[in-house]
Write a structure and sequence with these properties.
The structure is a homodimer. By secondary structure, chain A is mainly alpha-helical. In chain A, 73% of the residues lie in helices and 0% in strands. Chain B binds a DNA duplex through α1.
DNA sequence: ACAAATGAATGAATCGTTCATACAATGTTA
DNA sequence: TAACATTGTATGAACGATTCATTCATTTGT
């Protein structure tokens, strides 16, 4: 077989894999591990029932793979936040908008699902334990504290404030995912009012 | 059988029913219809697998019964809100605290589950259609509008604002139900910042 | 020819529901 | 009061319908 054809074939395979993963991510994020049926993924991807198994070993493999990617993504998103330009409020604002952004939203929700579901594959469990969302909060705390020192943010326990805030964001995403697709990105400033004074 | 003994027996039956319903409500609110197994209800109630069926026809019957009760509750809670003393903010504050109150929280979540689950028993579906949470918002809108006129609340489409607010409250409850039981009631004023200016 | 794709078929697991059995409380008889 | 009978309550193992991940015989496209 010629090199070129082989390379093309491999690329086609990768594209299919991506297509399936993208569909799976959407459903997993919304419905959780046990709530997602392979048939749903197939339908979302526009392929037949069985085809996923040409590209992946099992449902669990897909889930674990996505969780690992989600964590990787999350890690990247957070590393940058402190280096963003602007005041603490603007930094948090960018970060929140980033979270609410379609792709990241799904990753975020996926990790939530992995945290609250039963029977999560061990591969995924380990990945989460290695980098828990607890760490997310601890990364953001310095920004919040700086905001307090500069007088923009309300006083009080930063940890508790941020938990509240992230819970709200999380809840909003879930709500959004289920019910009508309202666009909350316009309302981020209202949400930030929870933190400011 | 003497009157007295019979009356006692009937009361015992009612108590058992309540015990089972209470357990079921807790689990249904948290896990939804299909997420709740009869075994979970039994465990929560501290009884054996099969006993629920001496007191209820089926899982669906229990669910539908609870949904009807929840709607009844909800209707009552909302009727009063306009008559509460104080400014619009204080009225909304009372209302929110009321929602977050343990029992009502579970009813509130149950209705949400009924709204977003598949395969909801027709009895429950009809009850919800008769009195949807849409109405909840419409009942609250006058209060919000008054708040806007008096300058306490931010400008903008009241409907959208309240959807946002209730979504946030809802999300918080779900979060709360899943993760550690943090007490958010202290944070209600922060949440109300979403609505005020 | 051959890989890609299909979707019906499989079979294991899940879970609502039932049922044979045990138990406790009350009633009956002597 | 003691022995027995009766009734309603509770258990948890077993049943059977259904669901769903996975497989595979077949078709499609190149």
């Amino acid at each position: 077989m010629p090199r070129i054809a082989r390379a093309q074939a491999e690329q086609a395979i990768d594209e299919r894999k991506e297509q399936i993963k993208k569909a799976a991510l959407k459903i997993f994020a919304e419905k959780g591990l046990s709530g997602t049926k392979m048939s749903m993924i197939a339908e979302e991807a526009g392929i037949s029932q069985g085809l996923s198994y040409r590209y992946f070993e099992s449902k669990d493999e897909i889930f674990a793979l996505l969780v690992e990617e989600a964590i990787e993504e999350s890690r990247n998103a957070i590393q940058d936040i402190g280096k963003l330009p602007g005041s603490p409020i603007e930094q948090l604002r960018s970060f929140t908008l980033h979270l609410l952004d379609e792709d990241h939203k799904q990753y975020f929700l996926l990790v939530q699902q992995a945290l609250t579901s039963e029977g999560v594959p061990s591969k995924a469990r380990e990945a989460i334990e290695r980098y828990s969302p607890q760490d997310t909060i601890e990364q953001i705390i310095p920004i919040f504290v700086r905001g307090q020192q500069e007088g923009q943010f309300a006083e009080g326990d930063p940890y508790k404030r941020l938990i509240l805030f992230l819970s709200v964001v999380n809840g909003l995403m879930l709500q959004d995912a289920k019910a009508m697709g309202m666009d909350w990105t316009q309302e981020v400033d209202r949400l930030l009012n929870i933190l400011t004074k």
